[in-house]
Design goal:
mainly alpha
């Protein structure tokens, strides 16, 4: 007479520590993919370098930055940093489309972890990858007249990471609606290009037409670029008129928005976009 034995299955508890470990695993996967894809590292830097050294140097001969005390490439540097993060972070988020198409996303979602933990790990991974790539541009700061101040560099890294988290979360929101890889790239270009041009990354926010000022104020990326430019100009010796022209900050109906509030808006956007991504993936998968 034979007896059937049933092996005990231990299901991990769904505590906070377990969810944090799951997010860490997803973050580690992004780091491994980043380390193995050297072509991606090089190609993602080409466009920011073209903006900085080709567009910046080319326009510096016809664009007067303040009274000439600040080079146009110096003004452009924070915006180019933001652009280097923008595209890398957006593609990190939208890469979830590939994970869905090849079945990896479903494997993650059936695991005994929450969707929030998975997408949070994805956002931290995308933000880390984008920030690491921006360090190469930060190393070139001295070539465009930006001082190598430890406080400035740490501030820029922190702001870049926060912005990259926000854009990765936006990419996840888009990925929840896109089902095929072929549709991913046009969707990214459709959303990311307006964000880039309406952020003030490539032009000062002073003296804009009313319609353009409204659009830039509605763009969450503007609140990521402006604090970086302010941090750079805090380290430069420029007169008040030049500062007001090139770094006027963000103004709401005559009220200058404090830098701390700008950073808080970016942080709030991170939370809102991540929550939206979680809600969309929960409904669609």
């Amino acid at each position: 007479m034979s007896t059937n034995t049933v092996a005990a299955v231990r299901v991990p508890t769904g505590g906070l520590a377990h969810q944090a470990r799951a997010a860490l695993v997803v973050w580690q996967r992004e780091m491994i993919r980043f380390g193995k894809d050297r072509t991606r590292i090089v190609s993602s830097l080409v466009q920011p370098l073209l903006f900085l050294f080709v567009l910046g140097v080319g326009l510096s001969s016809i664009v007067s930055a303040g009274n000439g005390s600040v080079g146009f490439t110096t003004f452009l540097f924070p915006g180019v940093l933001a652009l280097s993060v923008l595209f890398t972070a957006a593609f990190s988020g939208i890469s979830m489309v590939w994970d869905r198409e090849f079945g990896f996303l479903r494997e993650m979602l059936v695991a005994p972890v929450s969707t929030t933990a998975i997408l949070t790990g994805k956002c931290f991974g995308g933000a880390t990858v984008a920030t690491l790539q921006s360090l190469i541009l930060l190393a070139l700061a001295g070539l465009v007249g930006v001082p190598y101040s430890p406080v400035l560099l740490l501030t820029l890294v922190g702001l870049l990471f926060l912005m990259a988290f926000m854009i990765t979360a936006l990419g996840l929101v888009l990925a929840a609606r896109v089902k095929r890889v072929e549709s991913a790239m046009p969707m990214v270009q459709l959303i990311i290009t307006p964000l880039m041009f309406l952020s003030g990354a490539l032009f000062p926010l002073s003296g804009l037409p009313t319609w353009l000022a409204v659009l830039t104020n509605l763009n969450p990326m503007t609140y990521a670029v402006a604090p970086m430019r302010t941090a750079v100009f805090d380290q430069l010796d420029v007169d008040a008129l030049t500062r007001a022209t090139l770094d006027p900050g963000i103004v709401w109906n005559g009220w200058a928005v404090p830098v701390a509030m700008q950073v808080a808006i970016v942080a709030a956007s991170c939370v809102v976009l991540l929550a939206a991504a979680v809600a969309r993936f929960t409904r669609t998968e």
